[in-house]
Amino acid sequence: MSKKKGEGLKSFNRGFNVPDTYIIIFFVVVIAAVMTFLVPKGYYETEDVTYLMNGVEKTRTVIKDGSFQYLTDAAGKPVTEGVALFSGDGGTGFFNYMYNGIISSSAIEIIAFLMVVGGAFGIMIRTGAVEAGLIGLIRKAKGAEKLLIPVLFVLFSLGGAVFGMGEEALPFTMILCPLFVAVGYDTVIAVLVTYVATQIGFGSSWMNPFSVGIAQGIAGVDVFSGAGFRMVMWVVFTALGCGMTMFYAAKVKKTPEISVAYESDQYFRDQNEKTGIDEGHSFGIGHILVLVTLAVTVVWVIWGVMAKGYYMAEIATQFFIMGIVAGVIGVIFHLNDMKVNDIAVSFKDGAKDLIGAALVVAMAQGIMQVLGGSDPTTPTVINTIMYGISQALAGLSGAAAAVLMYVFQSVFNFFVVSGSGQAAITMPIMAPLADLLGVSRQTSVLAFQLGDGFSNSVLPTSSALMGYLVVSKIPYVKWLKFMMPLFLIWTFFGCLFMLGALMIGY
To answer: Do the beta carbons of residue 370 and residue 97 sit within 8 Å?
Structure first.
């Protein structure tokens, strides 16, 4: 979830002059416009297929195999039609891409979803319950550092899985760095149990509305469907990450000099901050009630999706109710000195913080508009591109295609680090491509979230990662040396899950 403070993390990333996501998308739009002059239009025939989900028969329109054909003129030649710079009749023009992207039917629902859910979590975070709960846990763990690592790892992973926690864990890294150094660990462990844990949760989430929800919505898959498989995946990756962290912690505890951060940790040793815990935080009944509200909402959403087939409108409303209840509790118990007006202010702030993500979704839809739209039965450039890619991969098995989708998403994340942005840009192409390659759309969403989540732990273009490394004083080169083997292990297991999903017809 994108937060205001997350924007400030960009200042940490001074060594990398990576273009803003908006700039990248604009150049993609330029490329898309040029392609309309070079690539002929094509289209497919479609057919309806029925399938069972949770015992309920559903129908989905898919592309008919072998039905692609070019749009031809009177002479039988494929038609190439370049996009205009500007359209004044409500049509598609190059400079119309932003507005057309916003009002497109697929984007407007996602944008509304982001605004409502973002506002709800804005209220939740304003109460300070999550922060107070974790700090209270840290205090109680004094003298039991071994237990602190798995507990924190699971909690932060859960935060990444449920509401896309990422930049929000930065304050806890600042707290944990001096604490872990004081008890004989290092700052690497502090980053592992906070940021890396959130990205494991993010990459294996079953209900993150800002990644899985958006990707499934674009792919035409029931939002938060397939949760069972993803829950298993989350448990495996969280256990794997936690086990690796504890193994490394035991080695550092025994021989501190082996730490890649041993030299940089001298800063914290010199400070001699035994805990680094802000004693001004308290944890009371109000905080407990807010956290219970969050837990109940998560269960309610899961039940609604699996038992009632709830979609974006219902899910957004569920989170909205959560936000109101959390706000009322915050006012009654004066959490973070909350007053009634703070409920409205924090809702607006939460929604405002996701305007950037919403515009990325709109701009990405604008790319599709420039290329003619994503309707497979309408002659468009995107259909021809999709056909070309499918032909290039035609000789590959479904397993190879699934793994390549995963690898592609990991590489693409270097350029567009935003999860919602990557979903908006890639899923309109990857979802129908999956149909052509014999891979389910659910599996294509799985490839997106795995590729997007895990690579955030090593990419220098991630402003969040660079922010964590700066506050922990860890040089990026040393972090990469440490993290790359773990990333490769997670990638290997990610490929196994992709293959497993393919085998069970996920």
So the answer is: yes
Q: In b/e form, how buried is each residue of 196-213, taking b as 16+ CB within 10 angstroms? A: bbbbbbbbbbbbbbbbbb
CA distance 297 to 292: 8
pLDDT of 439 strictly over 70: yes
How far out from the chain centre does Cα 81 lie?
Answer: 36
Identity of residue 388: G
SS3 242: helix
Task: Please give the sequence-ordered ranges of beta strands (E in DSSP) within 157-280, or none if there are none.
Answer: none
* CB-based burial label for 485 (10 Å; 0-12, 13-18, 19+): exposed
Between 163-177, 242-256, 439-453, the lowest mean confidence (pLDDT) is in 163-177
Q: Reduced to 3 states, what is the DSSP secondary structure of residue 13?
A: coil
Opening angle at CA 274, ends 248 and 174, nearest 5: 65
* Separation CA 427–CA 434 (nearest Å): 10
Rounded CA gap, 351 and 167, in Å?
16
Q: What are phi and psi of 261, to 5 degrees?
A: -105, 15
Residue 298 identity (one-letter amino acid): V
Write the pLDDT tens digit of every residue in 345-368: 999 998 987 787 788 778 877 887
How many Cβ atoms are within 10 Å of 60's Cβ, its own excluded? Answer: 15
Residue with structure tokens 């891409």?
A: 97
56-63 and 46-53: which strand pairing?
antiparallel
Residue 66 DSSP label = T
- pLDDT, one tens digit per residue, over 21-67 is 678 778 888 998 999 999 999 998 877 766 555 556 666 666 776 78
b vs e for 438-457, b when ≥16 Cβ sit within 10 Å of the residue's Cβ? ebbbbbbbbbbbbbbbbbbb
pLDDT at 490: 92
Closest CA to 70 of 392, 388, 379: 379
Enter the DSSP assignment of 463: H
User: Cβ neighbours of residue 186 under 8 Å, at least 6 residues apart?
Assistant: 180, 252, 256, 259, 261, 262, 265
Question: What is the DSSP secondary structure assignment for residue 461, as one 8-state letter?
Answer: T
Number of Cβ atoms within 10 Å of the Cβ of 184 = 12
Question: Which sequence spans correspond to the domains of the chain?
Answer: 4-503
CA distance linking residue 238 with residue 157, whole number of Å: 7
Closest among 236, 313, 233, 241 to 506, alpha carbons compared: 233
Q: What are phi and psi of 195, to 5 degrees?
A: -65, -50
Q: How many CA atoms, within 13 angstroms, populate the side-chain half-sphere of residue 408?
A: 20
Q: Indicate the burial class of 256 (C-beta count within 10 angstroms; 0-12, 13-18, 19 or more).
A: middle
Other CB atoms within 10 A of residue 33 CB: 21
- What span, in angstroms and rounded, lies between the C-alpha atoms of 190 and 175? 9
Q: How far, CA to CA in Å, does 160 sit from each of 196, 197, 243, 309, 381?
A: 10, 8, 18, 24, 37
